[in-house]
Amino acid sequence: MIPLQPIKCHIVFVCICWLITAPGAVLLNAAYAEFSGFAKPVKAFEQGLNKSTTPNLHNHTDEADLTKGPTKLHEDINKSSSAVPGEIFYANFTEASPQDDSANLTVQSVELAPVLVDQYTDCAKQTPPVSPAAEAAWWKSQGGKHWPPHSQVNAKDEGPIRVPGEPLGVCVMPKNGCTYWKALLMRMSGNAKWNSKLESDRHFNNGLHHDSRVLEQRSGQLTAMLVRNPMSRVLSAWKEKSTDKMGYYKKWFDKRPAARKSFRSFIRVIWSDVANFKGGPDLPDPHWRRQVDQCLLQDGAAYDINLKVECRGNWGPSLFRTFRSMLPFTKSGWGFNAKQPFIAPTARAAGAKPAQPTKLRGQASSHTTNASKVVALCNHYDDALFTTVAWLYRTDIKRLGYTADVRRLAQLCGFSQPL
Description:
The structure is a single chain. The protein has helices at 4-19, 22-36, 39-48, 63-66, 132-141, 178-188, 230-241, 248-255, 257-261, 263-275, 312-322, 327-330, 374-380, 383-392, 394-399, 403-413; strands at residues 116-117, 121-122, 161-162, 168-171, 222-227, 305-308. It is mainly alpha-helical. The chain has 16 helices and six strands. It has one domain (38-413). A four-stranded mixed beta sheet has the order 3-4-5-6, with no helix packed on it.
């Protein structure tokens, strides 16, 4: 028998020698660079946000959190997916005829040319093919990646909602079309209050229930999460809620007058709550909470596909044709004249304008803030603030597929690249 102790010592000696050689030095330098690369966002944070006369943001922020940001936001987060594929069975897919060659279609992963909506959002991966068989195959290929949460603590308050009559679960969160999708699901469930003049009817006692069981493996469900570019999402939240004339958010901003003063001051006020969120239903407010801290993602859940709301005109009509029970409720009945579709199709060409938001009666009609438009974003951000907010919401940008979009937006505004 060969003694193991000398072998272990020899291995340790070899490893130490390797680390002090050129290859080892390169590895150590790379590791150091990764964990010391927070200087740029912190510098922007100190120099940018403190341009205003409001108190120094350091008074409201955990210093430790400011010194631990990953810098390689350009890496594709999809490469790290480790969910075990589930078996997806869709009874309601449109079947191709035996004579149709596209019945044998397989959806392959290929590098797609960008399909830009509103000049900066790439919708290429959010645009299903046109033919019925290819369209059905595209949606089916998205399945098999969902995963249930490891905890049920938050399952009653958030997570996917089953679409009536279809093997589909959708998680919607505030500022991502939440009000309108709740209205659609209420309409499909026969709830007459779906188009009520009172916005509260769509949020409270609406008859909708979160059901985390659709995330279980072999559930037979396709699970989707509606996501939005964090840079426009947080701006939209401020533009909408800071102007409320009554209700909860008027009181919230009345208690924090600096948050109403300017978008820069608002970021200062919410910084600590957003950056240090550890879970639970309370702070920060879900309208500006990071998206990766909602929909049970913080509890380990995973969805089959992230649907960018900016690309809704590309994937929406296709989704409704594939899950056909949705068609009667999405073709018409929307808008102030009740004759518009739930989501109008977007022209499939570079430079296309996004589908206009759905309109509802009552207070919900004020939801549209135009915060996704380039001119609004460029006017409300400056170089330093853009870098700072991108760093605050870096996990959203990275995990939800917005890295290239944020870079493209920065270029359009003439800002330095934040990622």
